[in-house]
Design goal:
184 residues, 1 helix, single chain, Umud Fragment, subunit A, 4-stranded antiparallel sheet, alpha+beta
Length: 184
């Protein structure tokens, strides 16, 4: 009887330890959870939304919604959309409310309103250095992003991963409006 109890305790402990290790491996190598802080990604994402993010795979693309851990003046992790990649030239025209990459105006139906703010970070047009990306929030006029010196260009090494699912939704986050790259 005593041996049966010991084996039951051992089996229970083994199951618990295996579960803990499995969860740790999944969250380390598979995906992580992040929370949206602020209104900079409205209407795509809202303050308090919880996101599943993929583990970084070193392939950042135009239109990806990424989580950024690069130190910034806001002292927080940022959730932004990738607008420009290293080697591309970005231009912002506040008179027309447009953003261009390599001379082509971006198709951006996901933005809340046209861009009216240049920021204080750069003179445009700006060629993005290799290994860096230019990010913006979808709520362009209420977003601290690469246009501002408080954030600046993002070193790709500080991109934690790409948001692929908003917890509570029935559909994956995707580039639904971003099927066209800047050159198309």
């Amino acid at each position: 009887m005593k041996n049966k109890f010991i084996y039951s305790v051992y089996d229970f402990a083994s199951i618990i330890m295996t579960s803990i290790i499995a969860v740790a491996v999944i969250f380390t190598f598979g995906f992580k959870i992040s929370t949206v802080n602020g209104e900079s990604m409205n209407d795509t994402l809202n303050h308090g939304d919880r996101l599943l993010i993929s583990a970084k795979d070193n392939s950042v693309d135009y239109g990806d919604i990424v989580i950024i851990s690069q130190p910034n003046d806001y002292n927080e992790v940022l959730v932004k959309r990738v607008i420009g990649l290293g080697g591309q030239t970005i231009d912002i025209n506040t008179a027309e409310g447009t953003v261009s990459i390599d001379g082509k105006v971006l198709y951006e139906p996901y933005i809340k309103e046209k861009v009216m703010t240049l920021g204080d970070g750069f003179d445009y047009p700006l060629t993005i250095p290799e290994g860096k990306v230019f990010v913006m929030g979808d709520n362009r006029n209420h977003s601290g992003d690469s246009r501002f010196s408080a954030v600046g260009l993002i070193d790709e090494r500080y991109i934690v991963g790409e948001a692929f699912y908003r917890i509570g939704d029935k559909a994956l986050l995707n580039k639904d409006f971003n099927t066209k790259s800047p050159g198309e």
